[in-house]
Specification:
The chain is 46% helix and 21% strand. A three-stranded antiparallel β-sheet has the order 2-1-3.
């Protein structure tokens, strides 16, 4: 499994660079797992979230109320900063565990 992941990651990095012009690949699942198992890597803030249902140009858009004075009660915890190196270290640790199996 570890060898497969190394090959897959290598291919993904090359493909994203070649076709998307991006140095790196999105790994939202890894970030989500890190947020659950290593919450100290993330800084969060409570916000008010709503979905615009009436606007002609904005219908269906998600709106976060980030004003300092809360007009309404907060209803969602939002990640506003992440220790990217910490998440990368978490990924490497996970890959090492898989390789040891």
């Amino acid at each position: 499994a570890g060898a497969f992941l190394r090959q897959w990651l290598s291919y993904s990095f090359r493909a994203h660079h070649q076709y998307m012009g991006v140095e790196g690949i999105p790994l939202p699942e890894i970030v989500a797992l890190a947020a659950i198992s290593r919450p100290q890597l993330f800084r969060t803030e409570m916000m008010t979230l709503d979905v615009e249902v009436r606007g002609h140009l904005t219908q269906g858009m998600t709106v976060f109320d980030r004003r300092p004075a809360r007009v309404r009660n907060t209803n969602i915890e939002v990640v506003i900063d992440v220790d990217a190196q910490g998440v990368l270290d978490y990924l490497v640790e996970c890959l090492h565990r898989i390789d040891e199996l």
